[in-house]
Amino acid sequence: MKRLVVLGSGTAGTTIVNKLRPKLDPQGWEIVVVDAATEHHYQPGYLFVPFGRYDPSDIVKPIEKYLPKGVAFRRSAVESVDPGRNVVVLDGGDELGYDYLVIATGATPRPDQTPGMLGEEWRRSVFDFYTLEGATALAEKLESWEGGRLVVHITEMPIKCPVAPLEFVFLADSYFKERGMRDRVELVYVTPLDGAFTKPVAAGRLGGMLDDRQISMEPDFYIERVNNETKALVSYDEREIPFDLLVTVPLNMGAEFIARSGMGNELNFVPVDKETFVSPKWPNVFAIGDAADLPTSKAGSSAHFAVEVFTENFMQIARGEEMTHRFDGHTNCFVESGDGKAMLIDFNYDVQPLPGKYPYPVVGPMKLLEETTINHLGKMGFKWLYWNALIPGRKLPVSTRMSMAGKDTTKDTTKDIEVKV
Amino acid sequence: MTLATIADKEVHVDAEGFMTEYDEWSEDLANQLAANIGIELTEPHWKTIRFLREDFKENGETPTLRRVTAAGGIPTKELFQLFPKKPAKKMAYVAGLPKPVGCV
User: What is this structure's pTM?
Assistant: First the structure.
């Protein structure tokens, strides 16, 4: 009997076991999932909570409801992994041996890593929305807020869902307009990047959308600390950005046990091969989803496409064959832009987001890099797909590999937007 | 990928002027690259550049600002003084390394 241990039961971990359990011989393979939590959160839903559009009950379900029969759930934190002995040490000292290990413990916001962020203004005028508690507290704050200077801030890349802070500021613009108080709110977008997004064509488009909405942007801002007395962000090069209300995306880090086990980089993300997710040091250890140190966005969609590749490869391993499937870094994201519209972007390791149609050429029905109502409906409908098709491991009607069909490659030029050193 | 002439040497650079061939770099070139972006190299600059070059050789990617601080032992604040405004990009440019990925 061989044993596959999956650490973490988020999007990647849950989808992996749902796909693998029906395929792997129950007599030959035991599957164990380890997680300290009991709830599975639909994380893309956090974005809508501050604006009163989703209730916490929409986005939280019991973990075990989504694990298939024949998969053991071990509710425990992980103390460490000893990859030399093929053992996971659980909180309390119990050991769990493995033949293959998948690390899928994601990325966690760490406000404790920035001096002053957890100071006396935390959850008074300093909020995050990357946790359910943060998003819920912010909803209460916004309901009674009378206006002022709202600063939306990214601490450092990489973060989960790198478009979410932009979506937040677009939705905030729309929300304050609806409440008839947009003229009393100044919106400021502060980023460590040199533009609105990481890839040039989308950065140009998204930067224009900030301008259209009178949202000012402070680029290249690398935060050193939050000053609670003056209510300001302070950068390493001593720029100060005052705020009345700060919505920050704290530093995102991988799980602490990864650091304790000596398996991660400076941010506790696990270095793995970008096409197969196998560790270069330990051939029976994989890291998938946000936990992996990959040069693509940390997002549910890339985790989903990665899992499709991984499960095909893992079945080859189980049959004693070579892995032949390769991940291309495919990611797509709906970018909610306010007023009932959204934009869609689709990209991979090599190709930046371009205009065009998705998932089918010409007919779409979704349009890439354009704000449309149908994209917005796609985004809202995705919650149902997530709970009912994606994490249960059913096949979605989209290609795992990114397709160039339907894309307008004449826009694939970085020359439009000159990036200077 | 194009050729550029820096300090009388022909070298390969990308669209933004970052050198693409690790072995084409030299200390002479670094002085000229630094001058291109208005920096005069002093000993602390060289310490940073040497760390970047060694780390790239070992790991195959340009280290992030966080890594230069954590593994190279150079405080972030100092990096902003040495390479003002955009230290991650500027350090990589002078050290003849690809633009840091960091942001995806």
Answer: 0.93
